[in-house]
Amino acid sequence: MEKNGNNRKLRVCVATCNRADYSKLAPIMFGIKTEPEFFELDVVVLGSHLIDDYGNTYRMIEQDDFDINTRLHTIVRGEDEAAMVESVGLALVKLPDVLNRLKPDIMIVHGDRFDALALATSAALMNIRILHIEGGEVSGTIDDSIRHAITKLAHYHVCCTRSAEQHLISMCEDHDRILLAGCPSYDKLLSAKNKDYMSIIRMWLGDDVKCKDYIVALQHPVTTDIKHSIKMFELTLDALISFNKRTLVLFPNIDAGSKEMVRVMRKKGIEHHPNFRAVKHVPFDQFIQLVAHAGCMIGNSSCGVREVGAFGTPVINLGTRQIGRETGENVLHVRDADTQDKILQALHLQFGKQYPCSKIYGDGNAVPRILKFLKSIDLQEPLQKKFCFPPVKESISQDIDHILETLSALAVDLGGTNLRVAIVSMKGEIVKKYTQFNPKTYEERINLILQMCVEAATEAVKLNCRILGVGISTGGRVNPQEGIVLHSTKLIQEWNSVDLRTPLSDTLHLPVWVDNDGNCAAMAERKFGQGKGQENFVTLITGTGIGGGIIHQHELIHGSSFCAAELGHLVVSLDGPDCSCGSHGCIEAYASGMALQREAKKLHDEDLLLVEGMSVPKDEAVGALHLIQAAKLGNAKAQSILRTAGTALGLGVVNILHTMNPSLVILSGVLASHYIHIVKDVIRQQALSSVQDVDVVVSDLADPALLGAASMVLDYTTRRIH
């Protein structure tokens, strides 16, 4: 002990209050025990360790072959706020005699429990040096206040993360008395390799349970909002019952509100439910194996946001109890829930995933660092603390509400005229949109797509949008499985046999989906529009061309050669006008924007288009909108053309009704509102009576192509398949 100037062994008192803090203190106690030439160890046990209802967990300390010097019964039963205060008072009454008898040089106190506050208060007032484990962390509820109060009483600090170290410094603690060691429990976690873990799983959950196919639930009351935390626990149990997976439920700790939580468990029959195993305590070594191989852990225990990250097990953290903890990407927060639906949604998102193992809280070498730190303590130094005032480094974590707001997709719409890219949120909001003219050559077009997507992805970071992938809507026949445009429409040149997925995925390092613009419009309606919740419906796009998409039993129909829903090429007349597809009499040859433009030019060339109150500038091409304007102003020939176009479209819809028998037809695109009444008239005149009551509506989506492209990304990247 020459290093610290002490000429005798350092007498260390480790006081443990409950099963949770013992899991952190035990590795240090084992380390101290292995160096008897430097240390003398005294063990004091108090708190819920000594209560039968909480498993009499002092026995695991005895099983670890530690001599318990003192057992202090300090818990006043009642499990309410007053009982917690009385328990602290009882501990303060009993501890001075123990500390006078043991006369430790230093007391090791862990965490943020009310029992630990009594320990730190007693030691500080009796001029005993205090080493506080896990100070500087931020969580929620009264635990934060207790933890920081112990920090102010403690003389030395062992913290687990860089942020915790910075918090301690910002709380005026002397940097020289702070050790960034990592969490002691990680020394055991990162070396825990039990090949016989299945026997542990079967012992606690049953012989028929498989690895990664069960849940571990551990939820404690929140003492600053007991009523709400009990409601959250009730919703959690409802969600777990609905989720229908084998679940190991551990009883809550002894905080105020725990009695009510146990009542909720019994009211719902959890202890007798075939899918649940309710237990008071699991030995830490076995608990490690259970959470390491679980499909998910749920609750509000610090174990979930700290230790479980070492295994990459998915975690759902409920409520505010751990609100400020640093977490790995395996943790999904559900801050608040009015119904079980949000918790159930989180279970579907998390269950069965495997995340990278996180070492935020330790690298497996905490105990050697702590022992070295203990040896360096100079007992000749004065107890008076020094102070400084550095800045605070904030931590950031995941939140399910935050995720639902910011999860976004890059949507690309390749039209005949324009190329558009947009950032689209989970709720279908177009956060930002970029528009350029669509180049005529393949090389220029693909370069512009990449440039616009990179620009949008960069901007998304500034807008706090997390891009999940890229969805592309394009005209023509598309193989969505390979992300290849097989054959394009004549509107987009040099666009056959084009692999869109590979260059975008390689550039952006994101998954990419590609589909036909008609299919995208149908998917947009299914997720964001009037098709939401509809099992069978058809979307018809009335734009430059005529396209569509078919949703059958909630799924999009692509067809055997990806040619389904080419609704614009349904033939409605054997001797109709020529179509761009090479045939004639198609709906597109009558009702598309190109067809109306053709008819408008004919009228204009014959000086039969313009009527009073209407003009066309010389430098402006005549188009479909001029024909519509003329019809509105009373041009009989224009009205006749629109009526013929609408009738052709209506006959196509009748064919669709007779073939697919959908419950809904949605007309989309700029011409939809001009056709809707004519289409309904044709249905009344031509359709079978059994389908005449089918709803035909105009889409209320402003950008179906972009929203449909986005929906491919948002649906695929957030859906869970069981």
Automatic annotation (TrEMBL):
Gene3D superfamilies: 3.30.420.40, Glycogen Phosphorylase B (3.40.50.2000). An N-acyl-D-mannosamine binds at R477, T489, D517, E566, E588. One of its GO terms (biological process) is UDP-N-acetylglucosamine metabolic process. Residues 37-375 form the UDP-N-acetylglucosamine 2-epimerase domain. The keyword Cell inner membrane does not apply. Its main location: cytoplasm. Signal peptide: none annotated. Pathway: Amino-sugar metabolism; N-acetylneuraminate biosynthesis. It catalyses: an N-acyl-D-mannosamine + ATP = an N-acyl-D-mannosamine 6-phosphate + ADP + H(+); UDP-N-acetyl-alpha-D-glucosamine + H2O = aldehydo-N-acetyl-D-mannosamine + UDP + H(+). The keyword Disulfide bond does not apply. Keywords: Allosteric enzyme, ATP-binding, Cytoplasm, Hydrolase, Kinase, Metal-binding, Multifunctional enzyme, Nucleotide-binding, Phosphoprotein, Transferase, Zinc. Homodimer. Homotetramer. Homohexamer. The hexameric form exhibits both enzyme activities, whereas the dimeric form only catalyzes the phosphorylation of N-acyl-D-mannosamine. This is Bifunctional UDP-N-acetylglucosamine 2-epimerase/N-acetylmannosamine kinase.
